[in-house]
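Hey, I was hoping to borrow your eyes for a little while. I've dropped the whole record in just underneath, so have a look:

——
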Amino acid sequence: MKSVYLSANLYNKLYAHMTYDNVLILRIALETGMRVGDVVALQRRNLQKRTLNYVAQKTGKRDKKSISQGLYNLLIRQLNTDLPSEYFFKHRTKKGEHRTRQAVWKNVKKACKEIGLEINVTPHSARKTYAVEEFHDKGLTITQKELQHDNPSTTVLYAFSDVLVNEKPKSHLWDFEILAEKIAVRVVELLEERYFRNEN
């Protein structure tokens, strides 16, 4: 089952039932659109001033993400030494290793259960929330670049994941006519918000 979009205002409810480190991991994903696997692998040397420089594990592409001053301060607080290879999110039992994606996933699922959230929210949901907000602010081309997608059709699914959150396909294949209709309706709404309502 694929992870679904989660409205930005619901993350605080999740945070109240998660460990501090895992909350910080989700906050980075929400602010940057980074995959959680890349977030947990961050080291001190990846942070230069308020920019995270890294190589995405999935694509092998270099990327850099600017972060807020508040998030920067929280990351600096995570570190205990001046070692350049120190991980921000250390493994709890294995010395010299970083937190795993699976550990974050378990914490998110536990938090969802505790607040009664029955949709399939996972750490990857933060990337979809980021995509929706980025698309609304900056459009599809920039969102595609920020997510490192080769194909814009992939970005469309992320950018409109808020519309598709309750869509349950009848089989393993999507009904693309229904999907296209939902996206078209949302595009019209966005155009109206941006261009027509501002004139009134």
Remarks:
- The longest strand covers residues 51-55.
- Strands lie at 47-48, 51-55, 62-66.
- Residues 176-196 form the longest helix (21 residues).
